[in-house]
Amino acid sequence: MIPEAREVHLSRKDRKVLEACCRSPVTLQRDLKRARIVLLAADGRSTRSIAKEVGVQPRIVSLWRHRYADHGLEGLQDKPRPGKQPIYTKTTDKRILKLLDKPPPQGFARWTGPLLAEALGDVDVQYVWRFLRSHKIDLGARKSWCESNDPNFTAKAADVVGLYVAPPAKAIVLCVDEKPSIQALERAQGYLKLPNGRALTGQSHDYKRHGTTTLFAALEVATGKIIATHSKRRRRVEFLDFMNSVTAAFPNRKLHVILDNLNTHKKNEDWLKAHPNVQFHFTPTSASWLNQVEVWFSILQGQSLSGTSFTSLKQLQEHIDAYVNAYNDRAEPFVWTKKKVRQRRFKGRRITQL
């Protein structure tokens, strides 16, 4: 049943607005029909005749007649709709975060999306994954950290960084360390053609050992060049032999040598007395990453050692020596950009002692 038709009285201003709406080529069809309904109603047309001319149901005409009569032009706008209530709320998000603070179920190493959904009971696993992605929580990525407990961390770190940023005049700054037990592994490697025609490059899982070598390396901070030698072992005597070769490479020069806290690097007072032009500087405890030669060891591993095969220990050593020579031909110093050093505890981390 159609409600009783409401009389529509248009002001001059409203009529201009509705007529302009009807003439505009960008007016939406729904707004155009509503404007025509109100204009025709103001001319005294019946609900059914308006419905026939506009092409809508009589109940639609009656709706917009009443809406304009009650609210004016604002009544022709769509009312906000409540929409569907969300299934999951901020309370759900807090439950997920609270669950991540707890250890995973017995027998599991870490939480996964399905495990979280199962533990929550009423949360779909797809929502769990969406929530984790939105908060940039990667359950699969495992990171390690090392927090230095050295009470003199700031002083030692500032000493090392100071040598990088403002080295003493007419002095050589060297970063020295060892890469121990580099294995000479012989592996089958090359290209493998699969039955589908695709070719892969790689190496076999089986290998043959041909011994290990320890690489002593010194990085000259000013130039980025490397001095390196090989040794079978990593004792104090091998370290001091390497330091003798380093001092011979820089005769009559003041040397500032940055070292980590390895036992063989310390308690060498007799050697230092015999070499008064050499001064040792030690990185803070558990902060050997401050030593720039560690960066070079990472470059060596990625560019020279990963995915290689050696039939003898001598071949491995010659391979490393060739890389050092090639690296020195294009060596550039590392740029140290962080100048402020401070010791600050981690905040907001979750640690479970097992």
Task: Explain what this protein looks like in three dimensions.
This protein has 354 residues and is of the alpha/beta class. 40% of the residues lie in helices and 18% in strands. It has helices spanning 12-23, 29-42, 47-54, 58-71, 90-100, 113-120, 125-134, 153-165, 236-249, 269-274, 293-305, 313-329; strands at 171-193, 199-220, 226-231, 254-259, 278-282. The chain has a five-stranded mixed β-sheet with strand order 3-2-1-4-5. Strand 1 and strand 2 form a beta hairpin. It is elongated and about 115 Å long. The two termini are 75 Å apart.
Descriptive tags:
single chain, 354 residues, alpha/beta, 5-stranded mixed sheet, 12 helices
Write the layout of secondary structure elements.
Layout lengths: L11 H12 L5 H14 L4 H8 L3 H14 L18 H11 L12 H8 L4 H10 L18 H13 L5 E23 L5 E22 L5 E6 L4 H14 L4 E6 L9 H6 L3 E5 L10 H13 L7 H17 L25
Parallel strand pairs: 1-4, 4-5
Antiparallel strand pairs: 1-2, 2-3
Helix pairs in contact: 1-2, 2-3, 2-4, 3-4, 6-7
